[in-house]
Amino acid sequence: MADNTAPPYGEGQSIISPANEHAPRQLSFAQKDNKSNDALIDLSAASGGGGGAPSNPEGYSIYSNIKDGKASIEHQIEINVVDLFDVQSNKEISLEEVMDGLRYVMEYRIKGGRFPSLDYDIMKRLADGLLMNMGNSGKKGRFGGGVALTEEADVAFQLFGEFLLEVQEFRQAVGEKSVSDLRHALKLDVRCGSGSTEQEQQAAVALVALLTTNYPQFADWKELVKPEGHVDVQKCMREHADYVKAESMPEVGGVILAPQALCFDRRIKRVLKMYRTSLQTGLPSEAIPALQEHYGRNVLPQPPRTSVFKMLWTQFTDFIILLLLAVAVLMAATKDFIPMAVLLIVVVLNAIIGFTQEYKAGKALDALTKLSVPKAQVLRDGATSMINSEELVPGDIVIMEEGESVPADLRLAEVSQLEIIESILTGESVAVVKDPKDIRTLTRKLPIGDCKGNAFMSTVVAKGRGKGIVVRTGRLTEMGKISAAITGHSKVLTPVQKKLAVLGKLLVVFAIVLCAVMAGIKIGYHHPTGESLKVALSLAVSVIPEGLVAVVTVTMALGVRRMAARKAIVRTLPAVETLGSVTFICSDKTGTLTEGKMGASELWTSAGVTYGFTESTSLDPNKGDVTLKGGSGETPQVIGKTLEQVPAQMLVSLMVSSLCNNSSVVQKENDEDETVLIDTPDKGKGAVDPPAASAPGAVEWKGIGDPTEVALVVAAQKAGFPKTFFHELGYTRIYEQAFDSERKVMSVVYKAPLDTAVPGGEHYEFVLAKGAPEEILNRCVGFLPTVTPGAVGSPLDVLKPSQAELTQPVTEGFHDHVSEASGRMADEGLRVLGLAYKKVKVNGGGALDTGFGDGLDRFNDMKDKKEVAPESHKPTEVELLTAANVNDDDDDDDEEDVPPGYAESDFIFLGLIGLIDPARAGVKESVRICKEAGITVVMITGDHIKTASAIAKELGILEEGGRAIKGEELDLLSEEAIAELKPFPNVFARVSPDNKLKLVTALQSRGESVAMTGDGVNDAPAIKAANVGVAMGIAGTDITKQAADIVLANDNFNTIVEAVEEGRRVFDNILKFIVYLLSCNCAEIFLFLLCSIVNVDLPFTVTMILWANIIADVPPAMALGVEPAEPGLMSRNPRSPKKGILTYTSLSIILFQSMSMMLLTFGVYMWADKSEGHLEYAHAEAFTFLTTLQLLQGFLSRTMRTSVFRVNFFGNRWMLFGVLLSFVLMLIGIYTPGFNGVLNLVPVYGKTWAKVVVGCVILVVLSELEKLVLRRTGWTI
Questions:
Q1: Cross-strand bridge partners of residue 988
Q2: I want to staple 807 with a disulfide (CB 3.0 to 4.6 A). Which of 348, 777, 782, 1102 is the partner?
Q3: pLDDT category of residue 868 using cuts at 50, 70 and 90
Q4: Sequence-distant (≥ 6) Cβ neighbours of residue 594 within 8 angstroms
Q5: Dihedral of alpha carbons 728, 729, 735, 736, sign
Q6: Which is it for strands 454-455 and 383-388: parallel, antiparallel or unpaired?
Q7: Backbone dihedral region of 1128: left (phi > 0), alpha (psi from -120 to 50 degrees) or beta?
Q8: Are 393 and 470 in contact (CB under 8 A)?
Q9: Residues 769 and 837: beta-carbon distance below 8 Å
Q10: From the centroid of its chain, how far is CA 929?
Q11: Helix-, strand-, coil-residue percentages of the chain, each rounded to 5
């Protein structure tokens, strides 16, 4: 058991306290009690309190046996210092992670006097960062008094003391602090207060002793403590007098394990030592339980579950639904059961639709659980076995084979042609070539696509094999962070949902006021109170638009059907309307704005000749040609496809494109297996020739591999020289140096027979290379000028060693010439690659003597000197179990040498080839439409800024004076700063997908309505947070589709614009319905109010009101939901998300229309004979007149501004049918014996119908005058 009283510094103890058996981080730092963990062997007890841990003169750790360099240590501290200041604003890192990293560096790389001197500037900022974070407080103390400092604050305090002891520059930086700064940050009064732990008290006393002893300006300890804390500090100093004398920081038992991190900046050897593992044996099984206890299980955060009952209950708690239920209760109170039943049916249907949509949306969370990998091939105890991936811990060695999913975040140690598809995270379907080399950077944050030395959970191995070290598990993996973001970000209400809720509340307030006014007027005229209240309630029912929810739902559902026909699949109904009000569309470039297919656009040879390609994105080898580009106005000349017709520079350049390549093109016949037609690198003569275009059964062609390399293969096909052509000549690949991000070059070595007629005779070798233009050019000593006809027997003879030298040396002028051509091509949005070759000795000079292995387990013995830990240090159980791995001699990562003849140098420059992912057809026009509609289009891409800007300019997204910024600039800006950018950028290039969420929230903070597109899993949080999330149906992952509101079946930007137009149409129709419905209902209300004010009998009975609402409200309103779009719909600016459904203009329209119908009806009613015996006919006449006017108003409401005479009469046949149906129902209610008695109606005759015709003519004239005023004034409805 651990000793509660810690001895002075240097007596063989670790910095951290024994782990609390109830704490989640068992083997971590500074817990608040002194319970021990049985999984550990306590150091203080083992050491017996004697024998200080000696410093090692050679400067490496007695715990890890790793020899360290000063630059490496400063680099790691610098990363953590940056995060100390960024942790409050960066949600992707936690203070806990930063403190873990600093503790690890202190314990294993600095402690013990190994590096007493480090960079002053870094130490100064480290001191500032620690002081800033050591005062963080959390919950109240255990006894209810004072505050309790957080665990991270305690670690910051402890590290402050450790660095004070160990590093001279840190001491210097602290000495420059003022007393008041230290007093405020150290919080010694809290650390020695009644609620503090013994560890906190000991650390406080020790630090006071260090400060007062080493600094004259801090000699009086009372100046470092608030006056009210003097007594407590003095008491602690008496109780822990040993630490006053020791001038050291207290230490307690425990073991520090490496923090979980990607370690992309660490060498493999270093990572192995950090996690105490070995590539040959892996971790020992006995250490796994303790490691799992510390790191946790490798499981994704479980999404919160909403019960089915709660989903159903939510559907009935919407305000407007509650309003309709209240109306149904009122109807039941008045014994009007038929209208009550209709309302309840509407409520139930709405609940079913809403429940279905919410249940589907919940599938996004269910999809998360399917992303975890069930099994993993792991190396433990020197043996390989399949285990449940949940059992993986950092330090496990995972072996990956082609087709397998990655079970955790890994640091790759060994790879053999390893390519991993990371589209689930990045959205990019291209397989990423992996390279275990370390990447030096000053930040722990690196875009996923740039982490070449890592493999991420749930990604898939497309090619090759690999072995990796588990470095992150569970919630700390990239997939875990995305899972937490999806489950933790609530979906905001759409504008129409908010507006309908506000409208419903306004209507209920209006209904209550109406009830009170009506009841007051009737009672004031001494009418019976009961009858007055019943009439008032009936009018209140009249003002409520019973069909509002039903019509809105049906209108959106019909919009969904129309959008589905346009390849836009809507998952949530309100998204239909929301699309109509978007002000920003943030779109991916690849595959959405562009075709998503790379194609060769231009070949520029070293002779200064430029060639073009037709149908370059078509994979069909029989389509397309290579053309010789002429001047402006000249028709391009098609180049022939035989050796006699093709120029030497073009042929050799395209040979490099085709052979220095690992991709292929296949043809798929129906559902049969794919046959490789444009063969892979070493198919040789057995490859199948491409069939004719008319070959039966041909269905489609498909590129296999990197799209860039596929485009290069296709370019050679267009010229008539596929790989099979060269293989049939006996060209065989014998060596390859794969592309990596450091060299930016790929090279291959081929051998070919000197005499094709004698395949087994002598042969010659040559190197072909492609890569970044500047890298290729810098490795060239010459270039191939124009080869005149007849200078060589065949264009391919330029590669033969016996051929007379045709090259010329590279000069500064040529260098500038190539740079100019490369810059021009890049400005045109092309991805430019340089092409080169060189000759090698005859018969294999310089070839490798050894065979080619699979690249795994090829590490040489370590050259570092090992040391033995001193006897005074008794290790923990984890240290004992993993000691063999730490002392393993087989973990070096030296590279194999490249044979001198195959070195990537002394090349002959051939030319430049420019590739492009061309813009989709119609996108430019769609962007123009968006601008006319007041919508800003923003391109978001991981591509280079020049390429992105060129495409954006071509499409009209980026105009003169527009702005494009890179992701690294975006990282430096807060959300507030992004929102304030002027002008707001139209292009965001080299942006990591996780920045999309930041961009969405920034735009929403300034009141914009944002539509965001995406396809990868890490796009899901941004898609969910956007007002409208749009997922790609072809390239998108399942979880992204589940989180989205709309899925594009064709991944086409044009479809988004069409969906926006449909959304505007839907909102227009909803608005027409609401204006129509409220106009009709308000006409009834105003009519009743006016009759009550003049004290005449009310024109309708309660039953008539309800019947009029049923026949006049629902059918015409439903028909308005399918009304075609008005002309000029996409020429309007978007409706502001802040603007309500009803504006002052629309309210004026409602008032005008309702008053028109009311005054006409009131005139007819007052004209009628209302004497005893004739009152029922007067009621029936008023009912017939007003109901007919309402039906006519439904037809007139087909347009809000345009004259009804300019609208196709048969353009909305549903309106004709709806008005006719309602008119027939009205006639049935008037003329059907028995039924008209139930409704208190009587038949009406010719004079009444004459009045109706006159009233309709007057209403049409008034409606046209109203629309004329709206057109002339330009008022916004």
A1: 940, 965
A2: 782
A3: very low
A4: 917, 918, 919, 920, 951
A5: negative
A6: unpaired
A7: left
A8: yes
A9: yes
A10: 27
A11: 45, 15, 40
Query: Comparing 772-776, 827-831, 876-880, which segment has the lowest mean pLDDT?
Result: 876-880
1054-1111 pLDDT, tens digit per residue, is 888 888 888 888 888 888 888 888 888 888 888 888 888 888 888 887 678 778 877 8
Residue with tokens 């890890």: 64
376: β partners: 387
Instruction: Check the CA dihedral 1108-1111-1112-1114 and report its sign.
Output: positive
Confidence band, pLDDT 50/70/90 cuts, at residue 391:
very high
DSSP notation for 63-89: TT--B--HHHHHHHHHHHHHHHHHTTT
CA distances from 235 to 204, 224, 711 (A): 12, 15, 77
State both tokens at 92: 């992707």
Phi, psi torsion values for 1232, nearest 5 degrees: -80, 120
CA within 13 Å, CB half, 1248: 21
Give the number of C-alpha atoms closer than 13 A to the C-alpha of residue 667, restricted to the C-beta side: 17
Question: What's the DSSP call for residue 680?
Answer: -
Classify 744 as helix, strand or coil.
Answer: coil
Mean pLDDT of 74-87: 79
What is the Cα Rg of the chain in Å? Answer: 39
Amino acid at 160: F
How large is the angle between the packed helices 495-524 and 319-333, nearest 10 degrees? 30
Question: Chain centroid to CA 380: how far?
Answer: 36
The reply to whether 827 belongs to the active site is no
pLDDT 10s digits, 897-953? 677 788 888 999 999 999 988 888 888 998 999 999 899 999 988 777 888 888 899
Q: Is the dihedral of CA 271, 276, 279, 282 positive or negative?
A: negative
The DSSP output letter for 837 is E
Name the catalytic one among 588, 679, 891, 943.
588
Give the total residue count for the chain. 1277
Write down the pLDDT at residue 849: 35
CA–CA gap between residue 104 and residue 28 (Å, rounded): 11
High-pLDDT (> 90) share of the chain, %: 17
Dist. CA 1133–CA 1125, nearest whole Å: 15
What is the CB-side half-sphere exposure of residue 483 using CA atoms within 13 A?
Answer: 23
Torsion angle, alpha carbons of 849, 851, 857, 863, to 10: 0
Residues with Cβ within 8 Å of 344's Cβ and at least 6 positions away in sequence, in order, are: 328
Nearest to 716 by CA among 770, 654, 667: 654
